[in-house]
Design goal:
The structure is a homotetramer.
Chain A lengths: L12 H21 L6 H13 L3 E5 L1 H16 L4 E3 L13 E5 L6 H12 L3 E6 L5 H5 L2 E4 L19 H22 L3 H4 L8
Parallel strand pairs in A: 1-2, 1-3, 3-4, 4-5
Chain lengths: 201, 201, 201, 201
C-alpha cells in the first residue's frame, strides 16, 4: 500500500460538515418558517401536479440533474411513469405530462429550451430555482424558490461552499420531501414499494 | 392546462422537510460530536488518500451512485483525474489509484466485486457505509461509517424516510464536505476552479 | 491550429473499411444463406417475443450494451415499452416481460446474472451471442448465434479486427434488421413513428 | 412461459438483413471506389488529428452519439485520453484537443453549439455527416461525408430503413475503420491493449 502524507491546511472534514449543515439548516428553516420564498400553496401545487401527471420528465444540467435523477428513481418506486430527459428510451413529452426541472440561475440554456418545448405542447412545468424572476420561472406552472447561492456567486456571500453546491444539496432534500409527502399520501407501505426496485443489476 | 385536484392526506411538504432536516441534523451531529461512528482520523485519512491518488474511481448502485457522481464532478473541478465506474471511457483501475464507493449495507454485490478487484491490483478503497462489520468494510483501506438507516430497515426505527434515503442524502453531504476540505487545502479560489466546468453542453 | 504530422504505417482508412465490410458481409451471408448458425425460425421467434412482450428490457456490457441501446431507441420509436437495465427509471422485470441481451462469450457475469433473475420471475430471454453452448444460451428462450469472433480471440483467426468489434457491429445490424421487420409488420409509416422521437434535447 | 402468436406480414429478419447489408455495402463501395464523397486525404487527416490530439471529446445526439461512444471506448483501449460530452467527469475542451462529432443533417442544435465553442477555444473539429454544405461542416477542420440518408428523408429514396439508421450504422463502421487504422499504425498487439479494458464491472 502506498504511503499517505497529508498536506492539509484549512478546515477538517468535521468542520466542513458543520459549515454545510448550518447552511442547509438555514435555508430549510426559511422554507418552513419564513420569510418564505416558497409559500406552502406552491409546494402543494407541485405535489398535486406530480400526483396527477400522466408521465413525469425530469431534467437538469450537471449536479442539479443528478439530484433530480435521485428523485426520479423514488417517483418510479412509487409506481409513477418517470423519464429522464436525454436517456435512450425517453419518449416525446405531450400534454398531460409534467416536466420537473432544476436550475439555480433559471437560465441554463438546455433547460430553458426544454421548458419552452414542454410549454408549447401543453405540458405543465414544475421548477426548482433560486431565481424567481428568471426566464425559466416565467415559463413555469409552479415554481419552488430556494434561498440558496447561485453557481457564479464566487464572492461566497450566501454560501461558503463552491458554486451551486448548496442549491444542489437542497434540490435533493426538497425532491425527497416531495416524494415523502407523495408516499405518505399514497397510503402504501415500504414493503409495497420495495418490489419495484430494479432487480437486474 | 389540465385541472389539478389534490387528494393529499398526511404531511405537507413543509412537514416532510422538517422531518428530513431533523434526521440529517441528528446524524451530522453524531459525526461531529460523537459518540463517533467515524473518528476524525478516518475522515482525514479519506481526504489524504483522495489527495494523493493517481486517479480516483467512484462507484455505487442506484441513488448512492448518483450521489457519488455529484462528488466526482466536484473532484474533477478540483483538477483531479476522476472516473465513474461503468462509463464508456473509464479505464482499468491499478495500483496508486483509489476506489471511492458507497453502500449502506456494505453488501451490494457489484460494489463488493469491484472492491475485491481493486484490492487485488493494489488500489486503495475508501468506503461510505452504515455497516462497519460488512464485507465491504473489511476490504476497505478507510471506512466512513454513517449512523443512518439501511435500505431494508422497513420498520423505520432509525429514519421515517423510505429505504436508504437518509444514507444517500448523507453520502452527498459527506462527499461535499470532503470536497470542501480538499478545496480549502488546495488554496485555489472559486475563479480558478470555474474554467474546468464542462463547456460543451 | 496545431500542425498535424501523420506517422502512419499500415492500412489506410479505406483499406480498413474494406477489411471490415468484407468481414461483415461474410457473417451476414452465412446468416442468410447458411450453413446457418441461426435458423429462420429462431429469428422469427425473437421477433414474435418482442412483438408480444408487455415490456422489453435490454442489457449488455460495454460496446454490446451500446449497440443494444441503439436498438432500444428504435423499439421505443415503434411505440413499445422499452427499458435499459441500469438506467435510473428502469423498474423490476416480471413475467410477460422480455429481456434482450447480447454477449459474445455468453459468459459476461452481470448479463448471466440478469438472465438468471429474469428466468426466475418468468420473463422470456432473447440472446445474441457467438457461443451456442454457453450458460447464457442455456438460460435463453430464443438464441441468435452470430458466426463472429469472441473478445479474447486475439489470434485473429475469424476477424482481423480488435476484440469483439465484428460481433458488436453485427449486434447493431441484427438489431436493426429485427426492428425493420417489426416496423414493416406494424404497417406504420415513417411519419407515424416520427412524433415519438425525444423532443426535449 | 406465455404463448407466442406471430402476426407478421412483410419481410422476414433474413430479408431485412439482406436489405440492410446491401445498403451498407453500396455506401462503403462509394467511400472506397468513388465517386468519392470523402477523399482519402480527408480520412487520413481525421486519423492524424486523433493521433496527435492532447485529448479527444466525442459528441452526437441519440443513436449517432451511441455509435460514437462505441468508437470512444476503442480509442480509450488504444491509450488515448477520451471523453464523452455530457458525462459527469468530462472537463472543459481547450486548444490542442479534438472534438469528434456525428450529425447526419449537420444541423443538430446541441452538436453545432458544441462545435462553435470548440472552434472558439482553438480545438480541431472532426465531423461525420451526410451534408457537406451544413453549418457543422463549415465549422469543421476535417469532414467525413457519408452518402447515406438523412433522418427526415421519409420518402426512402436513399434507404428503405427508418430515419437515419443507415447513417448511424456507418458512423460505427467508419469509427471502427479509423480505430483499426490507428491501432495498426501503433504497432501494439491485441494483448497489449487488453489490460486497458475496464476491470471494475
Amino acid at each position: 500500500m502506498h504511503e499517505i502524507t497529508s498536506t492539509l491546511t484549512g478546515p477538517t472534514v468535521a468542520e466542513s460538515l458543520a459549515t454545510i449543515a448550518a447552511e442547509q439548516a438555514r435555508v430549510i428553516r426559511r422554507l418552513i418558517d419564513g420569510p418564505n420564498t416558497t409559500p406552502d400553496a406552491e409546494f402543494e401545487a407541485a405535489v398535486a401536479r406530480l400526483q396527477t401527471a400522466r408521465r413525469i420528465f425530469v431534467m437538469g444540467a450537471g449536479r442539479s440533474g443528478l439530484a433530480l435523477r435521485m428523485t426520479a428513481m423514488r417517483l418510479m418506486h412509487l409506481g409513477l411513469d418517470v423519464h429522464v430527459v436525454g436517456e435512450v428510451t425517453t419518449p416525446a413529452i405531450a400534454a398531460s405530462d409534467v416536466l420537473l426541472v432544476a436550475s439555480g440561475s433559471g437560465m441554463t440554456r438546455a433547460v430553458v429550451g426544454a421548458a419552452e418545448t414542454a410549454g408549447q405542447v401543453g405540458a405543465a412545468i414544475v421548477t426548482i430555482t433560486t431565481t424567481p424572476g428568471s426566464r425559466l420561472a416565467e415559463l413555469s406552472s409552479t415554481t419552488i424558490v430556494l434561498p440558496a447561492a447561485q453557481k457564479e456567486d464566487h464572492a461566497g456571500t450566501i454560501s461558503a461552499q463552491y458554486s451551486g453546491s448548496l442549491f444542489e444539496q437542497l434540490v435533493l432534500t426538497v425532491g425527497d420531501a416531495i416524494f415523502h409527502t407523495l408516499w405518505q399520501a399514497s397510503g402504501a407501505t415500504a414493503e409495497q414499494l420495495w418490489p419495484r426496485h430494479a432487480n437486474l443489476e
